[in-house]
Design brief:
Elements lengths: L7 E2 L3 E2 L7 E7 L13 E6 L18 H10 L3 E5 L14 H14 L3 E6 L10 H16 L3 E6 L6 H4 L8 H18 L5 E6 L4 H11 L5 E9 L9 H8 L2 H20 L4 E7 L13 H15 L6 E4 L9 E3 L5 E3 L2 H11 L3 E8 L6 E8 L2 E8 L9 E6 L7 E7 L12 E2 L15 E3 L5 E6 L3 E8 L2
Parallel strand pairs: 3-17, 4-5, 4-11, 5-6, 6-7, 7-8, 8-9, 9-10, 10-11
Antiparallel strand pairs: 1-14, 2-15, 3-14, 12-13, 14-15, 15-16, 16-22, 17-21, 18-19, 18-20, 18-22
Helix pairs in contact: 3-5, 6-8, 9-10
């Protein structure tokens, strides 16, 4: 993505001393909108074992799981990736059968999920397993019965990790992995000639396998999307809650985004292929208690989604391990499903992330910790303002939002935590309403008067605002 030096495109970070009532000016550029954000950009990822019935025979993914369906609808989840470690390891984990698949796609239809990436086994610890034939039969069943909901198939999970491929009877390096991947893909396309694939689902930040896989398969005609895993904070083990909060709201994490974009995304895009994060989250160890499961996670997730949407990603699936503190969906103390604070960030993106990315310019003389993004869709501008200032000295951003040519009344909606507490685990609201599994989200937009194409928005520290402006 080439940047106009006179404008700062969506995703620019400005940091520094946090001052009271700091003035910020955000101006939407006059250029035509850029990259379109796919309708199924927001997704979740679950381990394949989640498809299997519990001890009582009930399925987690089922058209009868009303709380889960409500949460997916409330959060705006439109993409689901099934895979993870349990797609193939340990090999004693059962392979989902047709009834499990039927329940999954019945759930997808009920929850209004647009597309599913369905992962199949690649790793074989025994020559008698013959997973290629098994995969082909499963693929044919899914294709025959659920083609409208299928994004594509995937083979294996994190094959670049020696702990994974070291178990396989044939894979010893990238070359042998690709050979086996091609063998399995051929078995599936023999059964389903129109089948396409995602891959390689490489581990967090291991770009060698991702970029080499993309280059090797770019002309194959069967690679639908290049997939990468990205856990921004690394393992996160031993971190205190405060250390986790500081890291997640710091400029370092946007720097990490840029580094991965340069090393992985830019080469993949140069090869003419799209890319998607089929696993993304903070800290791959399951998160940092007191940070990953707080309002900090909401602000980070909102920022993360907009940053990557502005950098040509096809989508982000937040990985949801049952159950760890950095999940989006998790059980409460009574084992009832609820949304972690992080989920509020996904919903905020759902409100302001449909359309095409717009260029913006930011004037931030006090250098407060603020990010801003703009999207144009359905005849409206959507500007997201994220004030990540926190702790002693964090102050309100007094934003003047300029939309050239606009003169009509706009609307604003706020994402807030109780008392502006970045460590809050409950009580946050979006549009003055909570998000739960019992009823539709009922947040409300508030009117925002215009004055000659300018709008005044006060964004408190540890909060975000989405402004909706009619476009001319």
């Amino acid at each position: 993505m080439k940047l106009n030096p006179s404008l700062v495109y969506a995703g620019c970070l400005l940091t520094g001393t946090l001052l009271a009532g700091s003035p910020v000016t955000v101006t939407i550029g006059l250029q035509a909108p850029g990259v379109a954000i796919p309708a199924d950009f927001i997704g979740l990822s679950f381990g394949m074992k989640t498809l299997l019935p519990d001890k009582a025979g009930a399925h987690f993914f089922s058209a009868t799981n009303a709380p889960l369906i409500t949460l997916f609808q409330n959060l705006g989840i439109r993409h689901l990736r099934m895979g993870g470690t349990t797609v193939e390891s340990p090999p004693t984990v059962a392979i989902p059968g047709n009834p499990d698949i039927d329940n999954l796609f019945a759930f997808a239809q009920a929850a209004q999920v647009k597309k599913v990436i369905y992962s199949l086994r690649l790793l074989e610890t025994d020559a008698a397993q013959h997973y290629a034939e098994t995969d082909a039969a499963i693929a044919k069943y899914i294709w025959t019965h659920y083609r409208p909901y299928l994004d594509c198939f995937a083979l294996g999970n994190e094959p670049d990790r020696r702990a994974v491929y070291g178990q396989d009877l044939a894979i010893t390096n990238f070359a042998t992995y690709r050979s086996k991947w091609r063998q399995f893909a051929t078995a599936i396309t023999d059964a389903v000639p129109e089948a396409t694939f995602a891959g390689p689902d490489a581990g967090s930040g291991n770009v060698y396998w991702t970029t080499h896989f993309a280059k090797a398969e770019k002309n194959s005609g069967i690679l639908r999307v290049v997939t990468e895993h990205f856990y921004v904070g690394g393992a996160g083990r031993g971190m205190t809650a405060q250390q986790g909060i500081e890291a997640m709201l710091s400029s370092d994490w946007l720097t990490a985004n840029q580094k991965l974009y340069n090393k992985m995304a830019a080469p993949v895009l140069a090869d003419g292929l799209p890319y998607r994060f089929t696993e993304a989250n903070d800290h791959y160890s399951g998160g940092v208690p007191g940070a990953s499961d707080t309002f900090t996670g909401a602000l980070w997730a909102l920022d993360f989604l907009h940053w990557w949407a502005a950098h040509d990603a096809s989508g982000v699936n937040f990985h949801n391990t049952q159950w760890v503190v950095n999940d989006v969906i998790t059980p409460d103390a009574n084992r009832r499903l609820m949304v972690n604070p992080k989920g509020y960030g996904l919903k905020a993106f759902d409100l302001g992330g449909h359309g095409s990315v717009e260029p913006i310019a930011i004037a931030n003389p006090d250098g407060i910790n603020l990010t801003a993004y703009a999207v144009r869709g359905a005849g409206e501008h959507f500007v997201t303002l994220i004030n990540k200032g926190h702790g002693p000295g964090a102050r309100e951003a007094q934003v003047t939002l300029a939309a050239p040519g606009a003169a009509k009344r706009a609307e604003v909606i706020f994402l807030t935590a109780p008392d502006g507490d970045a460590a809050a685990k409950a009580g946050m609201t979006l549009g003055g309403a909570a998000i739960n599994a019992d009823s539709p989200w009922r947040g409300k937009w508030k009117p925002l008067p215009a004055g000659h194409g300018q709008y005044a928005v006060k964004v408190p520290a540890v909060s975000a605002a989405i402004v909706r402006i009619p476009a001319q």
